[in-house]
Design brief:
The complex is a heterodimer of chains A (391) and B (367).
Chain A (H helix, E strand, L loop, with lengths): L3 H9 L8 E4 L8 E4 L1 H4 L9 H7 L4 E3 L3 H16 L5 E5 L2 E4 L5 H4 L2 H16 L5 E3 L3 H10 L5 E3 L5 H5 L12 H9 L5 H6 L2 H8 L1 H10 L15 E12 L2 H21 L2 E12 L4 E12 L2 H13 L6 E13 L4 E2 L14 H17 L22
Parallel strand pairs in A: 1-3, 6-7
Antiparallel strand pairs in A: 1-2, 4-5, 8-11, 9-10, 9-11
Chain B lengths: L1 E5 H14 L11 E7 L2 E7 L3 E7 L2 E5 L1 E6 H10 L4 E6 L4 E6 L2 E6 L18 E4 H11 L14 E7 L2 E7 L3 E8 L10 E4 H10 L6 E6 L3 E5 L3 E6 L18 E6 H12 L9 E6 L2 E8 L3 E8 L1 E3 L3 E5 L1 H8 L6 E6 L6 E6 L2 E5 L2 E2 L3
Antiparallel strand pairs in B: 1-5, 1-7, 2-3, 2-6, 3-4, 4-17, 7-8, 8-9, 10-15, 11-12, 11-14, 12-13, 13-26, 15-16, 16-17, 18-22, 18-24, 19-20, 19-23, 20-21, 24-25, 25-26
The chains are: A alpha+beta (391), B alpha+beta (367).
């Protein structure tokens, strides 16, 4: 999707059409842009840019707070359209997905026909503009969809792979970030064509296993399949604060809120996890992580919080701009569980069966009346904290 | 200080001391062993501030009494690799210690003895004695069930108490619990149970060289002391609330199975070979006259075994982590083991000997 959040906003408020529209956090504090319409991009505004800077670049910028409810709804509708054509849909984010349409030709026509139909259906039914890329592999398809955004439709045929790839900068390769690009440049490699012409051994020596990966991609080789049930490896949440925080008590309250939120997310997905990771970024951007693996997996807020708080105490005190909590090592809640001896008789059943029953009841309320409907006493009166993108 | 000692005895003493002395500590002085030579012999002192040791080396000739604090690890390694029968330790005027064995020697830097922490002396008041082998047995039957990482701090130790003329030890990691006891000649029950760090109890066992030796135990308000003929060990008690363990030991249960201990152990191990790496579970199907064992592993297959059993109850099933069950059975003293439980979600109580109970929580599957 093109400028997804911004496009949804413009669709719902037609008066915004043609104006530079952004969705993001407020410029007071440290808000960042999470989506910018193409009109806004003309001023040099792009996502992840601090809102204050965007406002300077484009004084007439229309800044809107995000409304994920509507974005999620639009996303769901789009994914439904995809599924009319193939069950092999692998969502990458709310507004992006890979589709494998091999074998659907007899039913729906070839990939190009399907692509055109999907693009038209999204415009007609959801009212949004999509860019489509069609190619023999995931890497090339994603590349193709980016090539003539917005409102793009690009097919890369197997025989034109080299012509398309060669002139592109190496940074277009998935996995080549700023640092790798710089290191490649010291080898005299700037374009994908130059990387492809390098000896594989040399690249491998220089970059190890990831060298093999980027060298393959430079040749257009990408054997990854479209995986409709890509397993989630972790579930987490992090926030950059409007103002740096150093008060341990205040940090703990945020931590508790994040843990509750992460736990709710896990329960919604029918998952639980064993490893809790705390991420903390100091005012000077120095970032530390600490993690701990539990004896048994959990999706209960208080359990996650007790670990996160312990991890937080192992991080040197200071002024923090960001903290985050992540739970990984996930498993399905239907996996067998080692029961606990003392869960029944302690601290009003913390982590025990009673607690699970209470949590289940609370979750029902949260689903029905919204996440803020019930909350912990220690979080009452704070409202949900806002992130830099205003969400 | 100048001491002549038997090399093997000194090596053994240093090896025991190195079991307490931390390899790396924020207080570097703790990485040393303190040697105290007096007219009555040579003592080695080691501590990590939680657990402390006084170890007496016999067969020494002290020609010049004195104290030296020397790097523990290096001293042990050097003395171990010497080939002489005896070793001479001599503190020079430059405060370096020379370790000499035959024609070979080394000179090590020492630390000012005043910097070394003070180590208690065994207090005989209120102490009682127990046979070394009985203490070793209690520790062996319980320590494995203590928590190793995570969980409540108190569960990292062994709860020890005197109750009704018995010395009782309890260890749990929250999923299984081991309780063992042995009669002692003490009239008075302990006022408060002591939680001894597992490292301390392991050191108890390490210094008991002959199971027939009588050893003394003394419980203080914040530490427990143990004395053998040639060593004293002190462990700082864990200050924490131990879970109410007696509440989770089932008393009346609906199902009661009695099986041959060795065979039961063998069948569990057999079937456990075909269980997953993460979710290890062996399911027991129990009916009149027999127990059936099932193990399965996603993507690998299934295993089945069975054995005779005396069963009181109605056909039922329960699943356990086989590793937990086997760890307990390893210490089983009896030929027959009984398992009692109420249903598939409640604790299973294994009776592994007259004074030995092992409770294991089952593995359950959400409906």
């Amino acid at each position: 999707m093109d400028a997804f959040y911004a496009s949804v906003e413009i669709r719902d408020t037609p008066a915004l059409a043609g104006r530079p529209v952004c969705v993001g956090g407020p410029s007071a504090g440290r808000g960042v842009i999470s989506a910018a319409s193409y009109e806004a991009r003309k001023y040099g505004v792009h996502s992840a840019m601090p809102t204050a800077q965007a406002a300077r670049l484009c004084p007439e910028l229309v800044l809107l707070p995000p409304d994920f409810k509507r974005y999620t709804q639009a996303s769901r509708e789009i994914m439904e359209i995809f599924k009319r054509y193939t069950p092999l849909v692998e969502p990458l984010s709310l507004d992006e997905a890979f589709l494998d349409v091999v074998g659907c030709e007899r039913l729906h026509g070839d990939a190009e026909v399907i692509g055109r139909e999907i693009k038209a259906a999204i415009l007609k039914e959801v009212g949004l503009v999509a860019s489509v890329g069609i190619a023999p592999s995931k890497f090339l398809a994603k590349l193709a969809s980016d090539l003539d955004k917005p409102d793009g439709f690009r097919v890369i045929q197997p025989e034109e792979v080299r012509d398309v790839l060669d002139p592109l900068p190496v940074s277009k390769i998935f996995g080549v970030g700023e640092r790798t690009a710089k290191r490649l440049e010291t080898m005299g490699v700037r374009t994908i064509g130059e990387l492809a012409s390098r000896d594989r051994e040399t690249v491998l020596e220089r970059f190890g296993a990831s060298g093999a990966w980027i060298h393959d991609l430079a040749h257009g080789l990408d054997a990854r399949r479209v995986n409709p049930s890509r397993e989630e490896k972790s579930h987490g949440m992090e926030r950059t604060f409007a103002d740096d925080l150093s008060d341990p008590e205040e940090l703990r309250v945020f931590l508790l809120e994040f843990c509750e939120e992460v736990a709710f997310g896990l329960r919604e997905k029918g998952l639980r996890g064993k490893t809790v990771t705390l991420k903390a970024r100091y005012a000077d951007f120095k970032t530390v992580t600490r993690s701990q693996t539990l004896a048994s997996s959990t999706n209960l807020g208080p359990r996650i919080y007790s670990v996160a708080r312990e991890l937080m105490s192992r991080v040197p005190e200071g002024s923090f701009r960001l903290i985050g909590v992540q739970v990984s090592n996930l498993e399905d809640v239907r996996e067998p569980v080692q029961a606990d001896l003392f869960s029944g008789l302690e601290e009003s059943g913390r982590g025990g069966r009673d607690h699970e029953a209470v949590t289940e009841g609370l979750d029902k309320l949260r689903r029905k009346y919204g996440r803020g409907a019930v909350t912990r006493g220690s979080l009452v009166g704070r409202g949900r904290s806002k992130g830099r993108d205003g969400s | 200080m100048k001491v002549l000692c038997n090399r093997e005895k000194l090596r053994e003493g240093l090896a025991v001391a190195n079991g307490v002395i931390p390899a790396k500590s924020t207080k570097p002085v703790l990485e040393n062993v303190c040697l105290v030579a007096t007219d009555s012999g040579l003592e080695l002192l080691g501590t990590d501030l939680e657990v402390s040791l006084r170890y007496t080396i016999s067969d020494v000739e002290v020609s010049d009494p004195g104290t030296a604090v020397i790097p523990a690890r290096v001293a042990l390694d050097f003395i171990r690799d010497l080939s002489s029968e005896t070793v001479t330790l001599q503190l020079g005027d430059d405060e370096n210690i020379t370790i000499q064995g035959g024609d070979d020697s080394c000179e090590l830097v020492t630390v000012d003895p005043d910097e070394y922490p003070v180590i208690s002396r065994f207090d005989t008041e209120g102490a009682f004695s127990i046979q070394g082998g009985s203490l070793t047995r209690l520790v062996g039957q319980t320590a494995f069930a203590a928590a190793r990482e995570g969980g409540r701090y108190a569960m990292h130790g062994i709860l020890t108490e005197v109750h009704g003329g018995e010395l009782r030890m309890v260890a749990t990691d929250g999923r299984r619990l081991a309780l063992a006891s042995t009669p002692v000649d003490v009239k008075q029950d302990s006022k408060e149970p002591a939680i001894i760090p597992t490292k301390g109890t392991q050191l108890f066992c390490r210094v008991i060289s002959d199971p027939l030796d009588q050893v003394s135990l003394q419980f203080g308000s914040n530490q427990v002391g143990m004395k053998t003929p040639n060593a004293e060990v002190f462990a700082r008690l864990i200050d924490g609330e131990y879970p109410r363990y007696s509440a989770v030991i089932p008393e009346e249960t609906k199902n009661h199975v009695e099986v041959n201990a060795e065979m039961f152990s063998r069948k569990i191990r057999l079937v456990s070979n075909v269980t997953g790496d993460d979710a290890r579970a062996v399911r027991l199907n129990i009916k009149k006259g027999e127990v059936e064992f099932f193990g399965r592993s996603a993507g690998r297959g299934e295993a089945h075994a069975q054995m005779e059993a005396a069963f009181k109850g109605s056909k039922t099933e329960i699943a356990f982590n086989p590793d937990y069950v086997l760890e307990g059975l390893k210490n089983c003293e009896a030929d027959l083991v009984t398992l009692e439980f109420s249903d598939r979600t409640s604790p299973g109580k294994f009776r592994l000997g007259e004074n030995y109970i092992y409770v294991v929580m089952p593995i359950t599957v959400e409906a």
